[in-house]
Amino acid sequence: RPLPRSAPQRSPARPPATPRGPSARRRMSGVWFRKGLRLHDNAALAHAASRGGQVIPFFILDPWFDRSRIGVHRFRFLLEALQDLDGQLRAEHGSRLLVLRGRPEEVLREIFEGKGPFALKALYWEKDTEPYARDRDARVQALSAEFKVEAQGFSGHTLFDIDRVLAAPGFKAPISMSGMQSLLKAHGPVAEPLPAPRLPALKLDGFEVPQISELYEEVPAGPSAMPGGEREALRRLAAGGAGAGDV
Questions:
Q1: 122 DSSP β-pair partners
Q2: pLDDT tens digits for 83-120?
Q3: Which residue from 8, 56, 129, 224 lies 20 to 30 Å from 15 (Cα-Cα)?
């Protein structure tokens, strides 16, 4: 097993930068990428873009996901997905992905206090369903309220909004295919995927996507057999579903 380096250090504090352009003077909205590392079908990103002003895409390398818990191949897949997202933002929008490091609540507190690399008036993210993430997001919601920052999570990781499904009268967890079909019928249809929104340009330096060699002593040799990233995933989807017999 590869030997992990020490956990990522917190992002260095610096005075808030001011992204350039007329939109930046109106509103600054942050989109916190987590699992949904894509531009298409991203409700949080689409909402931020629809509000106008500056959109700041960022990811936080959380030390909770320690290198002893995550193998080097899995972590390389994550970094490839981040690099692909960053590349799309740069090539198609003149924007970029900022990668911050540290416990999310501490990183966001510094930003809300004006000590981070940018300032925010609003924060959006894709909802998660795991216990750690739900507890973390509840703390972030409380922190946002403390600093009067608009904060909202959007469904997208699951076919339906999991909170609405669980809160529905008479809900019972399905234990069979017929139960799944009944749940789909009760809460459907599944929403159509959202197109990638148009985003304003973003000019900020630093906070690049790290290389795997920065995080692990031993790194895989050669290219990935199955690279990470939205564009690679769409390519594989198109190749695998090209014929009716493939579905």
A1: 29, 150
A2: 999 999 999 999 999 999 999 999 999 999 999 999 99
A3: 8
Confidence of residue 243 (pLDDT cuts 50, 70, 90): low
Per DSSP, the three-state class of 192 is coil
Q: How many residues does the chain have?
A: 247
Distance CA 201, CA 19 (A): 9
The Cα–Cα gap between 25 and 220 comes to 44
Residue burial 98-117, b: 16+ Cβ < 10 Å; e: rest: bbbbbebeebbbbbbeeebb
Closest by alpha carbon to 81, among 242, 238, 221, 224?
Answer: 224
Cβ distance 148 to 156 under 8 Å? no
Distance CA 145, CA 148 (A): 5
Instruction: Tell me the two tokens of residue 124.
Output: 């959006």
Q: By C-alpha distance, which of 174, 178, 105, 99 is closest to 139?
A: 105
Q: What's the N-to-C CA distance of the chain in angstroms?
A: 36
Locate all alpha helices (DSSP H) within the chain, ordered by sequence.
Answer: 43-50, 72-93, 104-112, 131-146, 162-167, 177-187, 230-240
